[in-house]
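REQUEST ID: PR-0412
SUBMITTED BY: lab tech R.K.
PRIORITY: routine
TASK: structure prediction, single protein chain
INPUT:
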Amino acid sequence: MIEVIEYDDRSSSEEAVRAVERLAVQDKVDFILPPWGTGFNLAIAPLMDKFGYPQLAVTAVTDMAPKFVQRWKKSFWFLGGGSDYSKALAEILGSAHKSGQINNKVAVVSVADGFGIDLIKSARPAFKEAGLELVFDKTYPLGTKDFNSLLTEAKTSGADTFVAFSYPPGTFGMAKQSKVLGFNPKVMYLGVGVGFPVFTKIMGPDVAGVMSLGGVDPNSQDFKDYAARHTAATTNSPDFWASSVTYASLQTLQQAIERVGLDRDAVAKEISTGEFDTILGKIKLEDNQLRKLWWTGQWQDGSFAAVSPNSRDGASSVVIPKPEWSQ
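STATUS: complete
OUTPUT:
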């Protein structure tokens, strides 16, 4: 039997840090699973390193991962960096512009937090290199609920493409408010939350064509089987980006423990160097990072299908322009 001790971080990084310290010092647990989000994983990383726990930073997107693995040698980064996602998007947009599907103007908004900062920082040079012009570039504070002014400015910017590097509340808010404003760009790329099943409930048929980070191979039997188990266990479907990667990270931890026992140093070494059978296929980390990932997804025919890298088996073809909003 496995004893699970759980604390609510109350969506506060300070609470997450206190919980990690309590788990390590007071509860003396064998392993600590990570919180959700880039900022939270960065907040707990020094403590996880101090107490010698492997950290599966699986819902953290950061270009600093190569440096972090040198600083925190038991940290493992499973979701890539901002530049991976922004370069993939820039490549899609650049190709669409060259083929005459869209103009070269892009409007971007980004949340003023770790995730948004990382993405926009890498997107600016990536868009420029792809021959795209950033005609609107604004940040917004975490917790913003009214996006009407930002969306109105983006609508009048002349851009065929709207990009938001956003967390779920902002993603959902901008999607709904865009429909109200009649803002229907040829390309709409929103941030975290687009791949969540709840997004389809929020947008209905208007999910079609919306792009974001991640995606899945909709024909993967491993993903279908995992989704069925997830739904049976929780009554909710998994998301179409980090859920399967998170599950794969737990399979990695399980197999490492089965091979070397509960010694945390040995487990960390095994995760760093071993190969593991997961729902993503066989994975082997490179410098404590998972690099074989889907960078861009798009809602197509009821599934959030991976469209980049388009050279990978299982990739779908991107659809541009997206359909008009329904009335």
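NOTES: The longest strand covers residues 133-140.
REVIEWED BY: pending
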